[in-house]
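Render this sequence as a predicted structure.
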Amino acid sequence: MHILLYVLAAVAAAFLVFLLTAVITDYRPAEREMLQDRSGLSSDTAEVLPDSLSILCWNIGYGGLGDDMDFFYDGGTQVRTSRERTQANIDGIIAEIRRHSPDIILLQEVDECSRRTYRINEVEMLRVAFPDYHIYLAYNYKSFFVPIPVKAPMGHVASGVVLMSRIEPEEVHRWQYPSRFPWPVSMFNLKRCLLTATFRLADGGSIVIGNTHNTAYDTGGMRTAETRWLGGLTARLASEGTPFIIGGDWNQFPPDYTPTAAETGDPHFTTVALDTALLRGTGRIAWDPSARTLRHLNVPYGPESVLTVTDYFYISPDVRTDTVRTIDLSYKHSDHQPILLRVMLSPRITKQ
């Protein structure tokens, strides 16, 4: 009996230590934070964006969600792929980005020494692979230990959204979205954010380019709060006469997209339509209706996979869109497909 009591006391003590550590190390970002350039490149405040601009946007699935993977949280069984496949995915992602040589790169789910990606520093790999780009990371997932699934916990996670640019921005910020999971789940889950970079234009004005990764598993009103907040920001930019381009994984359908029953009927991953009314009419959605950008992760990629669209851009009306195209990679390296946007910024941005 005494041994059982000692065991129970030890378990209770271990749990309290774990909970206390989680509280002490809990990631508590400010509402707005200035981000530092991780590239090591020298500063040149005289740089301006080129007249014609290409932007590649891609949720890279932290290099761990290639076509071999399903995922336990989405109805699958796997927690992580092999180290070799993770490295191969990252190498393939870097090669694909190089192939298009975009002016600006917006990436979501980039890991920095997380257990699920075998402590590979993907931010450093990007810095080395693209030595001519300035690089900024905004964390949206930091936990000393994610305890699920119980039999094979995810462990330490440090991940976020990354912006890379050939041209140095004037300033870069991380903005905390108002959505949040309830405590204590919040200590082990994402804290969603928007990363914005302000660039100089040739005519002396400025443009804001943002990278967003919105809530996927909504516990009630989280995506609505994020969209409403973003609408407030873009309305302020519009009132100041500052054009904007916001790209990312919205985890919501774009306007005029009609999902299938398989997309809306998935009990593990439910996507809803973007409520554009919350954006206050400050811009327009640019997406490629000819292709899908995301696969559900209940099974590895194959003919039975459920495909949908959650990746696109939100653009102010005074930016001219030339093309927006989804790049079909058959989900080889990530559960998302990259999208490539081309816009014209100069001479002075005019309304279409």
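Summary. The helical segments are 2-25, 83-100, 122-129, 222-240, 261-264. The mean pLDDT is 92.
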